[in-house]
What does this fold into?
Amino acid sequence: MKKFWITLTLLLTMVGGLTLINTNPVTAQAVTKHYTVVPKTLRGHWRHYDKKKKSYDKVIFTKWEVKSQTAGKKNWFSLSGKTFKVAKRAKEKRLWHSDLSVTKLGKHQTYAVGQSYTDMLASWQRVKRNGKTALRCTPASPAQKVSSTYYYGY
It folds into this structure.
C-alpha cells in the first residue's frame, strides 16, 4: 500500500510540473508614455514689449509646461509635457506622446520648443543682451518675417 501512495504522489507531481511548464505566461500590455521636461536654462517668467500693441508678450516655462500670452489678449496658450494623446502615425495604439516637444539643437544650449507632430516650433536660447539675461526666440518657419525676439525676465 505504501508503494501505491508513493507512485501516485510521483505521478501527480510530474503531471503538475508538466502543466506548469506548458502554460503560457500572461504578458501585460504596457503603455509607452514619453514625459517631456523643459530644460532648466529656459525655465522662468519672460516678457517682450510689443511696441505696436503697447503691451507685453509673455512666456512662462515650468518643468512640465509652456504657457504663452500674446500682447493685448487675455487667454493663454498652453502646452503640457504631462498631457498625453495617442500618436496618429503610430502603428500600435499603445504609443502615446505629450503635447509638448523639446529638442536640443547644437552645442550652445539652443532648444526647439513647440507642439508635438506639428511645425509650430521656435528655437529658444538663453543669452546676455544689454547686460541682462534674456531668451532669444527665433521662429522656425521662414514665412515669419521676424528674425529674433528677445524676452526678458520679470
Observations:
- The radius of gyration is 28 Å.
- DSSP finds one helix and eleven strands in the chain.
- The longest strand covers residues 121-129.
- Residues 100 and 115 are 5 Å apart (CA to CA).
